[in-house]
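<instruction>
Derive structure tokens from the sequence
<data>
Labelled lines for chain and fold
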Amino acid sequence: MEAIYVSVWDGGIEVRSKCQYDTETYNVTDIYSVDVDGLDICEREYIELPDGTIIERTDFTIDFDED
């Protein structure tokens, strides 16, 4: 399913991008690339499902496979 990948940087700057989330494997793929130049510390990562459910980074894996 389509979801939103959110990373929170430097005291609260949210960077949001589209991704795909597999509800059976808890795997996140196809995260759209976003420029984070100038940001230093990623403090939190989560995904937001279409119904507003938030899934913390500890509860999913990211597949960085670049075929």
User: Anything to note?
Assistant: The chain has one domain: 2-62. The chain has a mean pLDDT of 93. The CA atoms of residues 48 and 54 lie 5 Å apart.
